[in-house]
Amino acid sequence: MLTGTVKFFNETKGFGFITPEGGGQDIFVHVTDLVDAKTLRERDRVQYEEAQGRKGPNAVKVSVIS
């Protein structure tokens, strides 16, 4: 599992971006890939797996960590 911080999340549209903890390109996240959460907030620390989407890397199996 990878970790990162939520950079932005639009609750209305159901998507946002995660900044990986080790640096690199921001990762797209969609609300349907959240585990045990219905939304994310800026600066939430999250754990996720990375999958290849149509337009680049996507975060999947995303869960908030404390």
TrEMBL record:
Domain CSD: 1-64
Localization (cell): Cytoplasm
Any single Pfam family the record assigns to this protein: CSD
GO cellular component: cytosol
CDD domains xrefs: CSP_CDS
InterPro entries associated with the record: Ca-reg_mRNA-binding_domain (IPR052069), Cold_shock_CspA (IPR012156), CSD (IPR011129), CSD_CS (IPR019844), CSP_DNA-bd (IPR002059), NA-bd_OB-fold (IPR012340)
Keywords, alphabetical: Cytoplasm, Phosphoprotein
GO molecular function: mRNA 3'-UTR binding
Protein name: Cold-shock protein
Species name: Hymenobacter polaris
Taxonomy of the source species: Bacteria, Pseudomonadati, Bacteroidota, Cytophagia, Cytophagales
